[in-house]
Amino acid sequence: MRTDDVFGSRPSIVGPARIGPWLQKHLKPYRGSLLIYLVGTFAWQALTAAIPRLSGAGFDAILRAAPDVNYFTHLVAVLLLVVLVRGAIGIATTYTLEYIGNGVERDVRAALYRGLLDKRQAFFDRWRVGELLARATGDAGQINQLFQPGLEFLLIAAYGTVLPLIVIGSLDPQLLLAPIIFLAAFALAVRRHNRRLGPVSDRLQQRAGALSARLSESLAGIDLIAAAGQRAREGRAFAREACDYRDAFIRRGQAQARYLPPLLVNVALAGGLLHGLLLVSSGRLTIGELVAYLGLIGLLQQPVEALGVSVPLIRLGLSSARRIVEVLDESHARQERSGGHRAELSGEIVFEDVRFAYDDTPVLDGVSFAVGRGETIALVGATGAGKSTIVKLLNRTYDPVGGRVVVDGIDLHAWDAGALCSQIAIIEQDVTLFARSIAENIALGSGPNIDRARIERAAREAQAHEFIARLPDGYDTLIGERGTTLSGGQRQRLAVARALLTEPKILVLDDATSAVDSQTDELLRRALRRLRAGRTTLLITNRLAEIRHADRIVILDRGRVVDQGRHEDLIARCAIYRRIFTAYR
Ligand SMILES: Nc1ncnc2c1ncn2[C@@H]1O[C@H](COP(=O)(O)OP(=O)(O)OP(=O)(O)O)[C@@H](O)[C@H]1O
Ligand SMILES: [Mg+2]
């Protein structure tokens, strides 16, 4: 179900009630800083509101019949002090908020990454990598902006409205008339603005996710796209996606441009001036108080603009938080019991009536077989029979839907996943390598402290040393992402070396030598045979030469075990087995 609408039109599974506590949890370590910030910003705004008041007092002092020079110098000194202190507080609060915002961003990103590491394969079957990338990078960053400047401007809006109003009220309560009419109109306009902006913002983020998903998919399959002559088509499809993204941006810009309040402030200023002049002419107000009053109304410009910026940012931030929680809350978390069973494996595997389905189509339908300690079993079956799926149940990539898998007499669920998997080596059809050095790739399963001599010995045994030695930096050669700079056979030999190094108790070879040319094939197979000695081995292959070495052959057909036994007996009695052999010989 890897479609757009999984993330797009599907109604969100995460309600607002989940976002609040989640954000609170991440804010908890910053409670102290947040308090400092709240108090600091309050002080900053209070000092800001004091400035017009002080200037007004200055006007009155000068306009008096006998100006009081002493009082006037005093006022200027106070004004200077206010400005200096306010500047210092501004620097401190900005720093504090940066600290909070970036801290929360980092914590959220780390939590998301840990959450992803805990997901089962079924989760990654459903989600596109690019979509996850967009959420881990873009959305986590957006949470930072929720604080800086989202919260910052929201506070400016709140304090910056209330504090000037208090000062205006102290001048003359009648003067509150114009600002209060203005605020009522302002509240209505903001509400309307929010309604318009909400859906547009959600769509913007959705498009960002889709764009990133498309890009990462195309890059992952760039060789295929070029080989299939699909470059132009992919280019056009990407351009369409990019246009969608641009359109979403423009639509948000349009919605933001229709923000009315800045206009309202000027109307309020005109109304205030008229009201103030009337009060001056009736002798209720001094000129200085009028100056202070107009300065204070002018301050209302600031919250209006701040709210215009902060509301979209907070909206985006909350919607990003929702998108991250969506990933974290999606089921498929590994059900790992801490303190599961840890022990050295002896290597006995039993599948008991195991049933499994990827989505709804059954893939394994009552599979039962047993592998004794040190035994080599060949799993044989047509393509799509479910052989690789059995491997994925063994290393707990997926869990069975019915029945159980037992290793050394203990249900897989009761095992400590780490202890179990570190003793099972799987060499797959498709070898995964990381964009690190060759040596690191070989030592992947063996911990960080493994010495170079052992890595080299394993590589020699896996017939990999020769080609590694020819690489420019030998074992320190960095290989491209997914091992793109190596051939299929070279990649498999690295996988064999990796397996040799971990000294596993259970070995699974899933078509392990299919990509190796026939000459090395023989050498490598000899190495693999040595690797198999004394280990329980599950051999998935349809090559007769390999199957002959197995102690027993299990035949799988459309998710069922149809027969098992030795080669000679099966050839004689099993039609499916004969059919596979005529097909693959
Ligand atoms: N991740 C997946 N999601 C959905 N269906 C899957 C997935 N992986 C495999 N299948 C389906 O499950 C069935 C069994 O697949 P499996 O890979 O186990 O076959 P196989 O026996 O290993 O085949 P082959 O010999 O080609 O490797 C197939 O029909 C396949 O389409
Ligand atoms: Mg397979």
Structural class based on helices, strands and sheet pairing: alpha/beta
Strand order, sheet with most strands: 6-7-8-3-9-10
β content, as a range? 5-15%
Q: Span from first to last CA?
A: 37 Å
Task: Explain how this protein is built.
The chain starts with 15 loop residues before the first helix and ends with a helix. With 585 residues, it is of the alpha/beta class. The protein has helices spanning 16-27, 31-63, 69-117, 121-126, 129-171, 177-220, 222-227, 231-257, 261-281, 287-299, 301-329, 387-394, 417-421, 438-442, 452-461, 465-470, 488-502, 518-532, 544-547, 567-573, 575-584, and strands at residues 349-357, 362-371, 376-381, 402-407, 410-411, 424-427, 506-510, 536-540, 552-557, 560-565. The chain has 21 helices and ten strands. It has two domains: 13-328, Up-down Bundle (ABC transporter transmembrane region fold), CATH 1.20.1560.10; 349-584, P-loop containing nucleotide triphosphate hydrolases (Rossmann fold), CATH 3.40.50.300. Residues 387-388, 429, 510 line the site of magnesium ion (MG).
